[in-house]
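Researcher: Last one for today. Full complex below.
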Amino acid sequence: MPKRLTRSFFNRSVHEVAPDLIGATLLFDGVGGRLVEVEAYHHTDPAAHSFRGPTDRNAVMFGPAGYAYVYRSYGIHWCLNFVCEPKGSASAVLIRAIEPTTGLTAMRRRRGVADERLLCSGPGRLCEALRVTALHNGLALDGAPFELFAREGDVEIVAGPRIGITKAADKPWRYGEKGSRFLSKPFPAAAC
DNA sequence: TGCCCGATTAACT
DNA sequence: GTTAATCGGGCAA
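Model: Here's the assembly. Have a good evening.
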């Protein structure tokens, strides 16, 4: 059986945790799959929500590691993050894409599409497929409805610039599984 | 208070 | 390639 990830897994540099999550399994209410794409954000990073200090929205980022930070994106979508590092460092990993393995029927129904590659390939799509909302902001990642399992075996990881940001857009803090068909966007050829 | 813009997506041309 | 949908945060006034 895969090893269950505990909150201590997240109590490290966000730049160590992010690549370690590639290939891990995320289930939410029993629905989910393998993480294939994430991005790292740190409070010293101008692109991070926590850069300008605590607010009502980003309060969870300033708490201890191993909790879910869920925010509304463009007034429409939800985005799921895992808080990392000791309390106060306000860093988190944005979950951008998973390879669906469990609960495909539920995901197709919630998303309204049949193509596997369109179910969870993007932060907004993933949250719709897993039915993650603001209700889950602040929940611990080592308890229901979350189940996280460490990856098994070797995974080839690539890094590249993050998607959809304008500040610190040159930083290569997007991590993905090399060659995965479930990425929200391909990585630049130079990264492969 | 008002205005601009964003860690996005899908439906357009 | 372009744009609408849709709303809260952050900053200027």
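Residues 39, 41, 47-49, 71, 73-77, 79, 81, 94, 96, 122-125, 162-166, 184 of chain A lie near DNA strand B (CB under 10 Å from a C1'). DSSP finds three helices and eight strands in chain A.
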